[in-house]
Amino acid sequence: MELTWHGHSTWRVALGDTTLLIDPFFDNPHTDVGPSDLDPDYVLLTHGHADHIAHVGEFADAHVVATPELAGYVADEYGVTETTGMNLGGTVELGDAFVSMVRADHTNGIETDYQYSAGTPAGYVVSDTNPTQVADEESETFYHAGDTSLQTEMRDVIAPFLEPDAVAVPVGDHFTMGPRQAAVAVDWLDADVAFPMHYDTFPPIEIDTRDFVREVDATGSDADVHVLDGDETFDLSDELYY
């Protein structure tokens, strides 16, 4: 599984012959890539805020996955033609990937001429195997936490049952977790690899990522923290097996 961070909360996940793009927003200082440079099979949206759905309309050939409310909104407002609405706790098969939608604690109203509800904010767990009660040591699994605060579901549900190998957590504070709470999340999730996201895009969320690294170390977590450069790709297979 290849994981590419395009700044903010925008991730490209390549798994087998399937590519997924999460939260397309390219107006951020960490990327030199534009929507026309990418051709994902699926676009996953965690919630309806502009810094997470801004460029969804640029992927007319992709299949968009989101809550039913948000899927309907982007179909109406962005001209998206292929959508799948799903909800918390569900798992869908998307090409070579199995995608589970999990809870995120955040807001999710869309400011238009009126207040439009985009349903429940979410995160996604992407795996090459269908999650079951039987642990699969050979699977590769990535958890995109979306915009969220620290929540015990990370410890009580996502870690023991979905078993992420790699996690991307928001660290910018103000609108989401900051470095301290994000470090606790990494510890609770018991992952091998952790990435910071959702920081340095605009002034309220500017941080020193070294604070996040120190906080993760302070929890006693065994996770390797990788602070990626914009548009950098991380090969999870290499990390897990070599």
From TrEMBL:
It comes from the Archaea. Keywords: Hydrolase. Residues 7-198 form the Metallo-beta-lactamase domain. The keyword Membrane does not apply. GO terms for molecular function: hydrolase activity. HAMAP family: UPF0173. Belongs to the UPF0173 family. PANTHER family: UPF0173 METAL-DEPENDENT HYDROLASE MJ1163, UPF0173 METAL-DEPENDENT HYDROLASE MJ1163-RELATED. NCBIfam families: PRK00685.1. This is UPF0173 metal-dependent hydrolase GRX66_10645. It comes from Halobacterium bonnevillei.
